[in-house]
Give the backbone structure.
Amino acid sequence: GSSYLKLPKQLTDTKGYLNINNTDNECFKYAVVAALNPSKKNHERPIPYKKHFSKYNWNGLDFPFQVKKVNFQKFENNNPDIPPLNIHVLTNYTDKLPNPFYISSKPNANSENAINLLYFKADSENLVSTGHFVYIKHMCRAFRKLTKHKELRLPCVNCYGTFATQYDLENHSKFCLTQSPQRKKISCKDI
């Protein structure tokens, strides 16, 4: 990840994302720290978050951060006490929805306290080119376009199936989180 990139309009309209306006190449750090240490004001400014960088172990990680599963695993191994980390990648802006890329192997990857980040790029064709990480602060809002329901529904981080209750999501997770991440075109209730 790199410095600040403006989110596509279809994402900002959901009000589900927090995009830190950083000028360095540490957007991954800012997004993680924003999830773990919410700011009471100036949410999109980097200053309230930078002071929390030293709380976490960034050893063995290079910045700008490369989108590789091994890097996310290393971060989680370096920081065993943090909640599960899930990474979603927006590769096609016309699709309007990201795809699950890395889902934590820690228990409770679908829990409300899991860290969900979005990685996107100005050039959506090349994953190797430098992009930007943002914190998905409200999964229900961010992924609302998954369903035509008027009420907010809880999305599964692994397949993006949606559920009316936390209980239904937890029951679904017992099976789904044992599978490889992929966005389903069918309802997860059909599995």
